[in-house]
Fold:
Amino acid sequence: MSAQLQNALPRLRPMREEDVQAVMVVELLNYPFPWTEGILRDCIRVGYSCWVYEADDCIAGYGVLSVGAGEAHILNISIHPEYQGRGLGRELMVHLLDRARDHGADTAFLEVRPSNRVAVQLYESIGFNQAGLRRDYYPAARGREDALIMALAL
Structure:
């Protein structure tokens, strides 16, 4: 799979039910406390804006966005480790924010672990600012970790 990932040009497309197992590979590679297949299937079922980066027959990354009452929430975004550092996360974020605008959102929110410095820097470079803090939001190896609440005016 490594050679395929390194040589393939990814394309964005809507996530389908049959993508969930491949998306789970990326989820499990990136998160010690991953989402479940059921959560991903529910996101598709309820009509969230779910997108994948496809490279040949592989999923190189994915993102999930919910929109309602003028607000967008980036629920999850993840890039396969072999694709990280190539700008796909930024492209995916911009795509999700464009979809939020298309659905009439005027503000986008997300939560991120403060320890995930790469993600925090990416979000800040796009224009997100810290809007708050959720104490003990994420499970962690030793208890819980806070979440930064970040917001962006669209």
